[in-house]
Write a structure and sequence with these properties.
alpha+beta, Four Helix Bundle (Hemerythrin (Met), subunit A), two-stranded antiparallel ribbon, Heat Shock Protein 90, Helix Hairpins, rod-shaped, 472 residues, 9% strand
Length: 472
């Protein structure tokens, strides 16, 4: 609950920081592991060089010992004997410096034993020097064989260390890879979760705004979420209440102004009738023409006031739908039958086509919509013409098309044809001029159902299309 009190910006920053901490932690872990492996790799390289150097040094010392030992026996030279002893000490130091893990104790013991045999041969009578020199040659060959075994052992130790390091590298790489992939998956999950959680209030805001646009003012707006989004929801609810008040003020104004106009208008019509009846005296032709113009205009004004009231009533009723399961094909056929006298009087043919479509709609208001469109089509159709009403359903939309063979709708009129009191350029000859609210009422009822009205181009005639969401 404390998180919800933060603003959207704070929560978004918190989400980014949390994801950054996760990814940063994995990156630091990878860096530390890399440094550790680098240190071990350097240690391995240094140890490998040390072991290679020890094996090479041991071979060199053995060669020096053999050369000095044999020469000292033949020449009885103390300096050469001293060189042998020094080389022997150095060789012993090399072997002693090798770890038990690199040089097994049995092999080291054999090497030391062989050195003792060689050193024993260095002592004896001068008469036996040549025999001892020949024995030294044999013993040094044995020492060389031991040195070769030690070199092989060093190479084996280096290879084991290399394999262990490679295995550790592979294990660390797999571990880091798993950690990185896991953190990426966790970061993506958190990003999606935060996105959905933070986007949910905005979807509710969008639905609330659409509801205001569709005049659904009876639904309270309560948006739960971050503090700033919640404040926007409160402001939208204030706007809803304000629109409700304005709508009520508009309705009251229309009722009052209509009532105030009806009384003087009735008196004006009565006065014109008295003038035409000659109550105040016989009228000459010019006066009678003026009285006729007054009568015609008062009748038109009365019609406009009544149309205004009907439109206001329709706009109010459009927000109060009473949906019920309705067979739309039967509803269309009922409206066609209701106006049978009108279209037969003009020798028209009304053709209804389409499959049975059942949907939850306000049958009265949708019936009024179809009746108005059919009435317009009858009014504008030529004698003996054809009117087609087509019902269809595709995907999640219901389509109702009303097509006539009249003069059609001018391109300039098409964008404004659903505006209240707008009358198009093309009017039927000899017909009484309409009020221009029929299509406005049609549009109000269709929009209240969540649909839309459209005037399709082409011809001949007018082609109106109703699109409704398929609410079964």
């Amino acid at each position: 609950m404390n998180l919800l009190r933060g603003s959207f910006r704070q929560l978004l920053l918190l989400a980014f920081l949390l994801i950054a901490v996760l990814l940063g932690g994995v990156a630091l872990r990878a860096i530390f592991t890399f440094d550790l492996l680098m240190a071990r790799s350097l240690g391995f390289s240094a140890r490998a060089l040390e072991l290679y150097g020890a094996a090479q040094s041991l071979n060199e010392r053995s060669a020096t010992m053999e050369r000095a030992a044999r020469q000292s026996l033949i020449l009885s030279d103390a300096l050469l004997r001293k060189r042998f002893e020094d080389a022997g000490q150095e060789a012993r130091a090399v072997v002693k410096g090798l770890q038990p893990a690199d040089l097994p104790s049995p092999l080291a013991s054999r090497w030391h034993a062989q050195m003792e045999v060689i050193e024993d041969l260095m002592h004896g009578l001068p008469e036996t020097a040549l025999d001892r020199e020949r024995s030294l040659a044999v013993e040094f060959r044995e020492l060389d064989a031991l040195n070769s075994s030690i070199s092989q052992q060093m190479q084996g130790a280096i290879e084991q260390r290399r394999q262990a390091l490679n295995a550790e590298l592979d294990a660390s790489r797999m571990q880091i890879t798993r950690q990185v992939m896991g953190m990426i998956a966790l970061a993506l999950t958190l990003a999606v979760a935060f996105g959905i959680w933070l986007a949910r209030p905005f979807k509710r805001l969008e639905r609330a705004i659409v509801g205001l646009g569709e005049n659904r003012l009876d639904e309270p707006i309560d948006i739960q979420g971050p503090a700033d989004v919640h404040r926007i929801g409160q402001q939208l609810d204030w706007l809803r209440l304000r629109l409700t008040e304005l709508d009520a003020d508009k309705s009251r104004f229309l009722r009052h102004i209509s009532h105030e106009l009806k009384t003087p208008l009735a008196a004006l019509r009565e006065g014109v009738s008295l003038l035409e009846d000659g109550v105040t005296g016989e009228l000459n032709p010019n006066q009678r023409e003026v009285a006729g113009i007054l009568r015609q205009n008062t009748a038109q004004l009365q019609s406009q006031i009544e149309a205004l009231l009907r439109f206001n009533s329709a706009a109010f009723e459009a927000r109060q739908l009473k949906r019920q399961t309705t067979d739309l094909l039967q509803l269309i056929e009922a409206q066609v039958d209701a106006q049978r006298l009108q279209w037969r009087a003009h020798a028209l043919t009304v053709h209804v086509e389409g499959d049975n479509v059942v949907a939850r709609v306000d049958a009265d208001k949708l019936g009024t919509t179809i009746a108005n469109l059919l009435s317009n089509a009858i009014r504008f159709s030529p004698e003996g013409g054809l009117i087609t009403i087509r019902l269809g359903s595709r995907h999640d939309l219901i389509q109702i098309d009303v097509i006539d063979r009249g003069p059609g709708i001018a391109d300039a009129d098409r964008p404004r044809v659903f505006e209240p009191f707008y009358r198009g350029q093309r009017q039927p000859e000899g017909a009484v001029k309409g009020t221009g609210i029929g299509l406005s009422i049609v549009n109000e009822y269709v929009v209240a159902h969540g649909g839309k009205m459209a005037v399709l181009a082409g011809g001949p005639g007018a082609h109106f299309r109703i699109e409704l969401p398929h609410v079964s």
